[in-house]
Amino acid sequence: MRIRLSFIFLFILVSSIALIFYKSLFEEKNYIPKNINNKIENISIKEFNTENIFFLKNLFEDEKFMAINIWASWCLPCREEHQYIKNLSRIDNLKLVGLNYKDKTKNAQKFLEDLGNPFDIILSDTDGTKSIFLGAYGVPETLILDSELKIIKKHIGPINSKIIDEIKNLTN
Amino acid sequence: MKSFKFIFFLLFCIFFNLNNVFGENAKVDEISKNLRCLICQGQSVYDSQSEFALSVKTLILIKLESGSSEKDIYDFLKSKYGDWIVYEPEFNNYTLILWILPLFLFIFGGFLIARKVIINKR
Q: For helices B24-33 and B2-22, what crossing angle results, to 10°?
């Protein structure tokens, strides 16, 4: 009886450990901020390679939405996603803004020469503080804002054709 | 001569660190120690050298220089990244259990011990 009890105990122990491992080993443990619907301040950002300063709201022309893509020449996933950014520029109703993140002007220019410049306008965030106002925390990252500067979509990491479809649906 | 050199070295060290201890940097350190770096989670913004953490530190300095209080800075970062960015969770409906439970367990444990002592005395 005693042997049997300890066997049952061992069985329960092992199976519960196995269950816990199975459940939590594949779980994503990194915290990713999901603060969608946050409104961002109408901050001013310097244009890339010029001295012009723009307020975010003034960037809208006829478009109803704005996509801000944060990129840097030193970021490898940015290179991968660049072909998709080109597709993003084909969406009507969407102002495509590039935000060059903590980059050397020379390297960034080389990046655009090599891969093309799909952006309507490129802004520059030399010390990374503007990205914090956008609630972003790295490169690459893509935000979709409406005309009230409310974040309606946020994608961390390189975008792909699935994300582009989602953005198309959102901005229709 | 040797002692002169030593005193010179000592003064050099002290003046070199003065800004870190009393200046605005000390305040930045104090605030950034209470912030979680979202890139290398498990490290504070103070400890981390990731681009994100460096930017946050720059931003704290800018905010302090423009006259923001410590609380303003925490609130600003919380609005951008959620409550999780600060190490000490705020007292609200979501964190009620978190704050109450240890206190409750402490009192409950004390009660158990007290009961045991009383029973043993009898």
A: 60
CB contact under 8 A, B38 and A31: yes
Chain B contact set for A71 (CB, 8 A):
none
**Predicted structure pTM score:** 0.74
Question: Do residues B47 and B34 make contact, with C-beta atoms less than 8 angstroms apart?
Answer: no
- Is the Cβ–Cβ distance between A136 and A155 less than 8 Å? no
What are the chain B neighbours of A150 within 8 Å (beta carbons)? none
Supply the CATH classification number for the domain B2-88: 1.10.8.640
Architecture of domain A44-171: 3-Layer(aba) Sandwich (3.40)
Q: Mark yes or no for CB contact A132/B82 under 8 Å.
A: no
Show me where the domains of chain A are located: 44-171
Whether the ω angle into residue A158 lies within 30 degrees of 0, i.e. cis, is no
Q: Report how far residue B105's alpha carbon sits from residue B103's, in angstroms, rounded to the nearest whole number.
A: 5
> What are the 10-residue block averages of pLDDT along chain B, 122 residues in total?
87 78 79 89 89 92 91 90 81 80 93 92 82
Count chain A–chain B contacts defined by CB atoms under 8 A.
48
User: Does the distance separating the beta carbons of B41 and A129 come in below 8 Å?
Assistant: no
Q: What is the ipTM of this complex?
A: 0.78
Angle at A55 between CA A54 and CA A61, to 5 degrees: 85
Q: Which residues of A126-143 are buried (b: 16+ CB within 10 A; e: fewer)?
A: eebbbbbbbbbbbbbbbb
Indicate the helix (H) or strand (E) that contains A67.
strand A65-71
